[in-house]
Design brief:
alpha/beta, 11 helices
């Protein structure tokens, strides 16, 4: 790992090697929804988020208020289908990104080839590369088995991902096997908004006990009635000391 990439990884994961990332890149496919705004972004940052992940548009608006992100890291969500990965990554750096993410949520080999191209470009520029990997895609839950989750995590790592975002396997034992097999840090996603906040927190606690390096939650934070409160609660689990 280059010194530049290592410095950015330390900014993301901090001294304890853990990350609470708030994913706010949903407007690109959901459109205008409450909570996906700069006010919420500022609120979660003040409440303990280590990083925010968003799109070019929101990152550009956030850049107009330099104090908005404070010490939080910025992760840019990039298009796996983009024809010019390097141009996408350079634009992300112009906006001050500390990391970039690409989603491979399909068994389509072309998505995986594109993911590998992004990994090569990110290595060239010293940028931590997050691969979000979902076996079979979001609409095929029968493919979301612990074995398949472990497999795609390792595949992403072998293709050059510096850290991986994926589904929780469902229990600490199988999650631990996925984490150990991945060889790079793993963070879990939150998925659809849940009404059972206590169960969500228990899931995070179980995942952390299994060796997961943190969470990358979106709707369970920004669409919460009190995004600041749930951020503080999750931060206390991810960073217990």
């Amino acid at each position: 790992m280059t010194s530049t990439k290592a410095l950015r990884m330390r900014r993301l994961f901090g001294p304890d090697g853990r990350l609470l990332l708030v994913a706010m890149d949903h407007a690109i496919f959901m459109g205008h929804v409450a909570g996906l705004d700069l006010t919420t972004m500022a609120s979660v940052v003040r409440s303990g988020a280590d990083a925010v992940m968003t799109t070019f548009g929101m990152a550009r608006r956030a850049a107009q208020s330099p104090a908005l992100l404070g010490q939080a890291a910025l992760v840019l969500s990039l298009d796996v289908h983009a024809s010019e990965p390097e141009e996408q990554l350079v634009n992300a750096l112009r906006l001050g990104a500390d990391s970039v993410k690409v989603l491979a949520a399909s068994s389509d080999p072309e998505q995986w080839r594109s993911l590998e191209r992004y990994a090569v470009v990110a290595e060239r520029w010293g940028v931590p590369f997050q691969a979000e990997v979902i076996p079979g895609g979001f609409d095929q839950p029968d493919q979301h088995t612990p074995a398949n989750i472990a497999r795609v995590c390792r595949q992403a790592a072998e293709m050059g991902a510096d850290y991986v975002k994926t589904l929780y396997t469902g229990d600490p034992d199988s999650m631990q096997r996925a984490v150990e097999g991945a060889t790079v840090p793993v963070v879990i996603l939150g998925g659809d908004r849940t009404s059972d906040e206590d169960a969500l927190v228990r899931q995070v606690r179980d995942a952390i006990s299994a060796g997961v390096s943190g969470v990358a939650f979106g709707r369970n934070i920004w669409s919460h009635p009190d995004p600041a409160a749930i951020t503080r609660r999750l931060a206390a689990v991810v960073h217990p000391d």
